[in-house]
C-alpha cells in the first residue's frame, strides 16, 4: 500500500512541476514576443496531437518531436532540455506529443518507450533518441539536423 501512495504522490509532484514549467515558459514566450517585436505568437515548443501532427511535420523543413506522457518521470527531465534547445535553434521547429493522448501517432512511428525524441528532415524521420539522455547528446543531434538546412 505504501508503494501505491508513493506512486500517487510522485504523480502529483510531477504534474505540479509540469504545470509550473509550462506557466514559466508561457510567461517567458509572452515577454519575448513583446520585446522582440517579431510578432510571432508561435510557442517555442508546439503541442501536437493525432490530428495536427502530419500537417506540422509537413509545414516545417526540420522538426524535433518529444514524445512524452504525464506519468513518465524521465520525460520531465528531458522537457526543459527540449525547451532550451527550442529557444536556441530558431531554424528548427520543436514539438511535443503526449503519447497517451495521441496513440495513433505514437503507434504510426513505433514509439515503444518514453521519452522518445524524433528528428525529421523534409517530412522524413532521420534520427531518434530513446530515453532520458544528457543535454549534450540532444544538442549534438540538433546541431547535426541544423547542419542539413
In terms of topology, how is this protein built?
Blueprint: H1 2-36, E1 45-48, H2 53-58, E2 62-68, H3 73-88, E3 93-98, H4 103-108, E4 116-121, E5 124-130, H5 135-147
Helix pairs in contact: 1-3, 3-5
Q: Can you tell me the number of structural domains? A: 1
CATH superfamily: Glutaredoxin
Output the helix-strand order.
Answer: HEHEHEHEEH
Secondary-structure-derived class: alpha/beta
Beta content comes to: 15-25%
- Which consecutive residue ranges, at least 5 long each, have pLDDT under 50? 32-40
> How many helical stretches?
5
CATH topology group: Glutaredoxin
Radius of gyration: 16 Å
Mind summarizing the main beta sheet?
A: 5 strands, mixed
**Average pLDDT, all residues:** 87
Widest β-sheet, arrangement of strands: 1-3-2-4-5
- What CATH architecture label applies? 3-Layer(aba) Sandwich
- What's the CATH C level? Alpha Beta
What overall geometry do the principal axes of the alpha carbons give? globular
Keywords: Disulfide bond, Electron transport, Redox-active center, Transport
GO molecular function: protein-disulfide reductase activity
Protein name: Thioredoxin
InterPro entries: Thioredoxin, Thioredoxin-like_sf, Thioredoxin_CS, Thioredoxin_domain
Amino acid at each position: 500500500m505504501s508503494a501505491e501512495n508513493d506512486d500517487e504522490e510522485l504523480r502529483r509532484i510531477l504534474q505540479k512541476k509540469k504545470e509550473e514549467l509550462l506557466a514559466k515558459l508561457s510567461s517567458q514566450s509572452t515577454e519575448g514576443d513583446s520585446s522582440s517585436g517579431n510578432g510571432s505568437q508561435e510557442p517555442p515548443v508546439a503541442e501536437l496531437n493525432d490530428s495536427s501532427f502530419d500537417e506540422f511535420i509537413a509545414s516545417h523543413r526540420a522538426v524535433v518531436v518529444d514524445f512524452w506522457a504525464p506519468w513518465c518521470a524521465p520525460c520531465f527531465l528531458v522537457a526543459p532540455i527540449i525547451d532550451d534547445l527550442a529557444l536556441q535553434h530558431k531554424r528548427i521547429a520543436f514539438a511535443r506529443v503526449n503519447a497517451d493522448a495521441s496513440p495513433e501517432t505514437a503507434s504510426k512511428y513505433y514509439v515503444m518507450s518514453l521519452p522518445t525524441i524524433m528528428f525529421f528532415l523534409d517530412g522524413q524521420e532521420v534520427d531518434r533518441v530513446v530515453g532520458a539522455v544528457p543535454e549534450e547528446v540532444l544538442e549534438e543531434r540538433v546541431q547535426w539536423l541544423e547542419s542539413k538546412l
